[in-house]
Each structure stands twice: as C-alpha cells, then as structure tokens.
Amino acid sequence: MGIDDSKPFFSVIMACHNAASYIEEAIRSVLNQTIADWELIIVDDASNDVSYAIASAFSAIDQRIKVYRLDTNRGAGFSRNVAIEHATGRWFAILDADDLYLPDKLERQRHHITSCSERDLVLVGTGVINISVDGRSEKAYSYSGDSKKLKRNLYRRAKFPPHSSLVYRASAFKEIGGFNPRFLRSEDYDLWLRLSEKGEFSCLETPLIKYRVHDEGISVNRCANGYTQHMYGAAANVCWRLGKLGCDVPSQSDGAFNKLMGLTASLYIDSQFEKSYILLHRVKKLLHKGKCLDIGGILAQNPLPLLFLICERIGLIAFHDIVFDNYKHAAICAE
C-alpha cells in the first residue's frame, strides 16, 4: 500500500489551558517552519482566559490550523487524544502551548525519518534550549541518538528529550491507545514506556525547540486530588512493568488505578522521597537565581533527604521499585 500524499507528514498537536501569555508565539513558531507539510490541531482545555480566541483567530486565516474547545477541564492527556482524533498526519508532533519550535525543527525531523534505515522507528526527539518565563535563553541540552541508550535513560527516569521535541509515528501511537487520561501528570512518561515496546527511538542532537522553564515546581506540587508528578511517574513505571510480566495493568480500570495511586501516595509521604524532591527543587531554584552560597546551608539542614536523593540518583534505591514490590505483595495477599 502506497503513502497517501494528500495527508500532511506531521500533525502538530497542541493542548492548552490558560496559555494566553504564550500561545500566539507558539503558533507562530509552527507557521514559521521551513516546510509547509503540516497541520496544527489545537484543543483548548476549558481555559478561562482568551487562549481559545487567540487560537481561533489564527484558524480563521490559515486552513491548516484547526481549533476545538472542551467544556470542562480534562487534562493534557485527554485534550491531546481529542486533537489526535481529528489528526490526519503520518506522524504526530507535540508542542506545548508555552514552548517554541525553531524554524527548521520539522524539516530536520522529516529528513531524519525518511532517510533512516530503521523501518520500525516510532519516536524522534531533538535537543533543546531552555528559556525562562520571559523568553530569555538559558542553557542548551542534547540527548543520545541511540535507541538503546534512550530507552535505558527512560526506564531509569534519566536524561530524555522533552515532550515538545518529540514526534511519534501515528500508527504506533494509535496501536497503544494514545495517552491514558487517568494520568493527570506524567502522562507523557506513561506513553513513552508503552511506546518503547513498539519500535525504535531516535534523537537529533541539535537543539530545535525552546522549552520554557517555569518556577511552579510541578514535580513537587500536588494536583487537586493530592497526587504529585513523581507519584504518577512511579505508578506509570509499575503499570508498564506489570504489563511486561503479563499481569493485569492497574491503569486500565478506575478501581485498580485508584488503589495503586493510594498506595503510591502513602509510600511517598511516609518515606524521605517527598522531602528529597522538595530539596532538589529548592536547590534548582537557588542555582537558577545564582545564589550558590545558600545551597550549602540548605543541604546541611537536610542530611537524610539529601542521602535519599543521592542514593536514588546513583541507583542504590528507586521509588518505583518500592511501589512495585509493595503493590505486587498486596496483590498476591489479596488472591
């Protein structure tokens, strides 16, 4: 079966919620691409600012841009799935509404995909330039282009390209069922784990996106349900490992997933992991502000969280291992 040339190569997927400060610049970064072989599908996740109006104005002047609006806030994973229902591209490209593509981002990824000998390539990322909230460039990062290294880093929650740099093969994305909306955070990590079973990963070392670094500390701040990004990430890892063992995957049902998240939260709160990640966030903020002299005092005041943080970073302990062992034990005892 031949390739349908009437379809765009890329469907750029953008979910937004109260992104009025950034969304115009994000959309223009797509319009400024050096190729025109794309469509942009935006889903406004019940914003109460003018995000939807801004996006709709662009849709009115460029037929490649399609905009949809949800009546209630459902989260980024759900919103992206809605966008993908309307997507026709052969590859899905993610762009968060506060990030930016550099002009040749899509062209370089298309060239890499079409020239790559890996027929089962399912994910391609790029390097990144971190920018501040006000758009100032801060630091550039690159990532391994080797599939085995990328997957190993993913499993260890180590160095992995950010979401807005990634493109996914549409057929593989649909095969795994897209984003799981039960993950209000770490929905990308859950997706990557499942996608890693379907083909090869790759990455261009060149920085081709600008990733906006906010100061809200989403990794340690809680959702309305009380769960943090780190809790969701641990749950995603547990679900993936259970699936590889042929066990029932908790994220496929509300009841089982709620039990897993409850266990994850209790283990997280009762351990030093929460304190260690709060400590890490505080240190990052001080580094960002150039207050290096204050870091020593904070570390001295938190010796046990620091020890846990170091042990997890060098692989002596891992929170997802603790959750996995406890969940498996609880499941065996319930049988």
What can be said about the biggest beta sheet? 9 strands, mixed
Number of domains: 2
The structure class reads alpha/beta
What would CATH call the homologous superfamily of the largest domain? Spore Coat Polysaccharide Biosynthesis Protein SpsA, Chain A
CA(first)-CA(last) distance: 48 Å
CATH structural architecture of the largest domain:
Alpha-Beta Complex
Mean pLDDT: 89
Protein architecture, described:
It is a single chain. Strands 1, 2, 3, 4, 5, 6, 7, 8 and 9 form a 9-stranded mixed beta sheet that branches. The radius of gyration is 20 Å and the shape is globular. The chain is α/β, with parallel strands linked by helices and 335 residues long. The protein has 13 helices and 9 strands. The protein folds into 2 domains: 203 residues, Spore Coat Polysaccharide Biosynthesis Protein SpsA, Chain A, CATH 3.90.550.10; 106 residues, no CATH class. The model has no long low-confidence stretch (mean pLDDT 89).
Which short descriptors sum up this protein?
Spore Coat Polysaccharide Biosynthesis Protein SpsA, Chain A, alpha/beta, globular, 335 residues
Structure, briefly:
By secondary structure, the chain is α/β, with parallel strands linked by helices.
Topology:
Elements: E1 10-16, H1 23-31, E2 38-44, H2 51-61, E3 65-69, H3 76-85, E4 91-94, E5 100-101, H4 105-115, E6 121-131, E7 137-141, H5 147-155, E8 167-169, H6 170-175, H7 187-195, E9 200-212, H8 229-244, H9 254-270, H10 273-288, H11 293-301, H12 303-313, H13 319-334
Helix pairs in contact: 7-8, 8-9, 8-13, 9-13, 10-11, 10-12
